Amino acid sequence: MSQPDFSHDGIRTARGTAFRYLFMLCALLSILTTVAIILTLLLDAVDFFAQVSLVDFLTGTRWSPTNEPIAFGVLPLISGTLVITIGSAMVALPIGLLTAIYLSEYASDRQRAYLKPALEVLAGVPTVVYGYFALVYVTPAIDAILPVDLSTFNALSASIMVGIMIIPMVSSISEDAMSAVPDSLRQASYGLGATKFTVSTSVVVPAALSGIFSSFILALSRAIGETMIVAIAAGQTPRMIDLTDPAGMFLDSIQPMTSAMVQIGTGDIVGQGPAYKSLFAVGLTLFVITFVMNLISELVASRYREVYR
Amino acid sequence: MTNEQMTPSETEPTDDQTTPTPGTDGLADTADSGWETTTDRTLLEARDLSVYYGEEQALSDVDIEIPEKQVTAVIGPSGCGKSTFLRCINRMNDLVDSARVEGELRFDGKNVYDDDVDPVALRRKIGMVFQSPNPFPKSIRDNVAYGLKVQGKKDNVDEKVHTALERAALLDEVEDQLDSSGLDLSGGQQQRLCIARAIAPDPDVILMDEPASALDPIATSKIEDLIEDLAEEYTVVIVTHNMQQAARISDKTAVFLTGGELVEFDDTDKIFENPEHDRVEDYITGKFG
């Protein structure tokens, strides 16, 4: 009696190996690209810091890369980014969270089926459209309604639009987290005579807190990195936060890090001087900030997940 | 029959054996005659109660009178509607979009499906314990205090938490760790925590939906002992798929068979020793289901 043939099939083995390396190559490609970008950022930033001191860059309160007297203090740009982030957070976090609670706890399956995709359309609108919308409609509207002296380019309308843009991120990720809260917890709460509102606020939201927090951080990272809206609508005036008049920051033209980079990158700066290289220094700063925020988001999510599930 | 309010004094006792004297509460009554004696006053009464999930009928014209301060077991094969019946009592079926309830379910004479009944108010009179332990991801103390907080009973919370844990036979095991998470307890302890949570706001009725089915035999026997004690103060309705459990702990037993039909309801001894219906006997003896 002959034994069954279980021997290797050369072609099958070769094909398996080929696919394995093809998949690995694709996976490596994106990692390599990321590494290359970070490396370029770093190298050009090092070039920049050879000409401008790191301390001056990080502590300087004046940003003027082309006009005399030249100054490369990044703080006004960070101020601008901070203003936009705070403004958009004030719009997106409450609206996004309440939307998520509505979708997860109050909406019927039918309503949810229409509302969720409709909300996600918001995230699909090209940001350049938001930018011009802020400039052409929101600013004149605010000017007409509020008795304030609003500049044509201002942080207020830009941050409102950035806020609207990131609402779907907050609501969608938060809603996922709330839907994942086990139904048995809701039942326990209803069984004790809780109203829908109490069930939502005392059981569902606390149990989904890690996901909600992650959604906040991710949305804020997105707001920090948002370029087009602020480049169009927020203006190009680097300005320090005036602690005596924080609200005044919103009414005037500002300049966040991203739009400063746009200005350098698209302007007529020639050569490899510090003005041009500052692009990479600001870019690196931006990268570090959003990277740290994503790291915090990951940490929070993994740390509190076990506690609440 | 319409009763505008859910007050015992307006209730017409449907069982004519014992009528509680107005002014004396049940506690004094039973204390006089010893714990063993129970009143046979009907607290919960279903009349032609039917439930549909969409097109499917889950409960079919159920008539039943559940006595106060006794343990009533609801048994039957899977899908017979026993859990559906339990969830009719505190209107938890309202949370299921497709559920539709017909007929009446009276709590102390008041039909809980009347338009003027707020299920939230109803559920505050009725505690519920679920199939698997479902403590909140909060501290032991906050778990037990949750119902008190929700219901606005903010006086002597600590004292009530202690009493509830004591009644649920859990206090000795957790007294030193009231601030640690309820999820750190074992399954059996978690279920007793859920019982403590259900009784802390001092409801009239406790509904239990297979409360021991996820537990090991030792934890189960602790829960069973506890249920018998609870009937001294509360009306307990327990759904179980375990017939020995029903026989051990209940005073009355309701047998539901397929199609959501209540086939027989009587004293537990009678059901297990000499049931009226052949189908019930077949089920009890294991020939069916």
TrEMBL record, chain A:
Question: Where does this protein reside within or beyond the cell?
Answer: Cell membrane; Membrane
What transmembrane ranges does the database entry give? 21-50, 70-103, 115-135, 155-173, 194-220, 279-301
Gene Ontology CC annotations of this record: plasma membrane
Q: What is its main location?
A: membrane
The ABC transmembrane type-1 domain covers: 78-297
How this chain sits in the membrane, per its record, is:
Multi-pass membrane protein
An example GO biological process term is: phosphate ion transport
Which Gene Ontology terms cover its molecular function? phosphate transmembrane transporter activity
Q: Which UniProt keywords apply?
A: Cell membrane, Membrane, Phosphate transport, Transmembrane, Transmembrane helix, Transport
Cross-referenced InterPro entries: MetI-like, MetI-like_sf, Phosphate_PstC
Function field: Part of the binding-protein-dependent transport system for phosphate; probably responsible for the translocation of the substrate across the membrane.
Instruction: Name the protein family.
Output: Belongs to the binding-protein-dependent transport system permease family. CysTW subfamily.
Q: This chain belongs to which protein, by name?
A: Phosphate transport system permease protein
